[in-house]
Each structure stands twice: as structure tokens, then as C-alpha cells.
Design goal:
Helices cover about 70% and strands about 0% of the residues. It is mainly alpha-helical and about 130 residues long. It has one domain. Helix 1 runs antiparallel to helix 4. About 10% of the residues have low confidence.
């Protein structure tokens, strides 16, 4: 194969991976948001928001993807577990927690940094001044 064709193929695969990573980051943000807001919401609103997340996952899965099938299978299993939890009226918050962890792992596997907005910033080291 031509060198340029190989480079172009590598470019397309990286672009697809970056786009998938962006979409996974959006879903991960929605999961974090739901988890954060859940104490103030009723179960019906939580179910509705979780169903919206499942719909986002479906849109990703129904798109045309080349390459990384393992990530798509993991994404499918996350969406399926959330949907089953909604349908069977199981502990949705526990499912959301595990789905968030799985999405963070999936994001890390793709090489996408996980959003650390909720983590407290590191305190700068205190400067010591000599006492005279």
C-alpha cells in the first residue's frame, strides 16, 4: 500500500477515536451531573434523565464507526444496564454509579482525560520564611 494511503488511514482512525472520545466525554458529564443532582430529584425525574443518557448512547451506537469495536461493545453494555435498571425499577442510583465508573475506564482506555472539575485543587506548598 502507498505510504500516503496508510497515513491517511491512520489519520481517519485517530479522528474517529477523538470524535468517539468527545461523545463519551459528553455522556460521562451527563452521568456526573445526574449523580450530583440525584439527592434533590425524585425517582421519576432521575429515570427520565437516565433515559435521556441511554438515548445518547443509542445515537452513538447507531452511527457508522470503523475500528474500535471493543469500546462500542462496552458502551452498549453500559447503556443496556441503565435501560434494564429503569425498566425493572432496580436501584437506579447504584447503576448510575457503576456506569460512571465504567465510562471513566472507557474514557481512560481511549486516552481521553477524565474531567476533574469536582476534585479539590491541590494546595500550593507553604513557603517558610526564616524567623529573625
Amino acid at each position: 500500500m502507498n505510504k500516503y494511503v496508510m497515513e491517511f488511514k491512520k489519520f481517519i482512525l485517530n479522528e474517529n477515536k477523538a470524535y468517539l472520545g468527545e461523545k463519551i466525554g459528553d455522556i460521562l458529564s451527563a452521568l456526573h451531573n445526574l449523580k450530583e443532582m440525584s439527592p434533590n430529584l425524585g425517582i421519576l425525574k432521575i429515570s427520565k434523565m437516565a433515559n435521556t443518557i441511554v438515548d445518547q448512547i443509542r445515537r452513538i451506537l447507531h452511527s457508522d464507526w470503523t475500528g474500535d469495536k471493543k469500546s462500542l461493545l462496552n458502551l452498549q453494555s453500559i447503556g443496556t444496564s441503565i435501560a434494564k435498571s429503569i425498566d425493572k425499577k432496580q436501584d437506579l442510583l447504584e447503576t448510575i454509579e457503576s456506569a460512571t465508573q465504567e465510562m471513566e475506564e472507557l474514557s481512560a482506555d481511549l486516552g481521553i482525560p477524565v474531567n476533574s472539575v469536582a476534585t479539590p485543587p491541590e494546595a500550593p506548598p507553604e513557603a517558610t520564611t526564616p524567623v529573625l
